[in-house]
Amino acid sequence: MPDYSKNGDEWNEMLVAKHIPGFSDSLTAFDQLEMATEQRSVSNTAESQVPAWLTPCGSERHIGIEQGVRNFAIVAVDKTPNSLLRFVGAELYDLQGEELRVGRFSASDLVLVLQNKTVLMNWMQLSGDPLLLPHVDRVIVHVEQLSVQTQQAVFSGIRSAAAAAW
Fold first, then answer.
1. Would you give the DSSP letter of residue 151?
2. Domain extents for the chain?
3. What is the pTM of this model?
4. Nearest one of 44, 67, 53, 51 to 16, comparing CA atoms
């Protein structure tokens, strides 16, 4: 059974943080939050104001990435409160056509193709180019999680998502 006894403390720490939490191999999330709290500048906002990354957003995009043996699909759906989901885009990519050796490429190879030869970064609103889809407040990317027993598991799940973030 997970220990939830410190959830209240964690919530209060998030409320006073001035920076979006990040990832570092050398520091725990708590250490990073503590450093961000110590380094924050004095603000003229109320102490009880909730940071932007913890507030509800007006619109969000869910991007699903599905990987097959030869193909790669990216689908996007936009969601706004009190409305139906809106399908906004779908793309299918041939892995060999994108210069990946089927069954013989690394997570880094796949991330480079996703960043440079697909619409993913644009749909995530990170490319700096004119947006192909309407602007949204938040983007969530869902990456297929393959079994570790699958030959192509090396480029699935956490490893690809972490590489894409950096």
1. G
2. 7-54, 60-165
3. 0.60
4. 51
Tell me which of 122 and 110 has the higher pLDDT: 122
Burial per residue of 27-57, b for 16 or more beta-carbon CB atoms within 10 angstroms, e otherwise: eeeeebbeebeeeeeeeeeeeeeeeeeeeee
> What CATH number should be reported for the domain whose range is 60-165?
3.30.420
pLDDT at 162 (0 to 100): 46
Q: Is the per-residue pLDDT at 158 higher than 60?
A: no
Strand partners, 83: none
DSSP assignment of 75-122: EEEEE-TTS--EEEEEEEEETTTTT--TT---HHHHHHHHHHHSSHHH
Neighbouring-strand partners of residue 72: 67, 93
Least confident of 5-19, 43-57, 63-77: 43-57
Question: Which one, of 43, 25, 23, lies nearest residue 33 by Cα?
Answer: 23
The length of the chain is 166
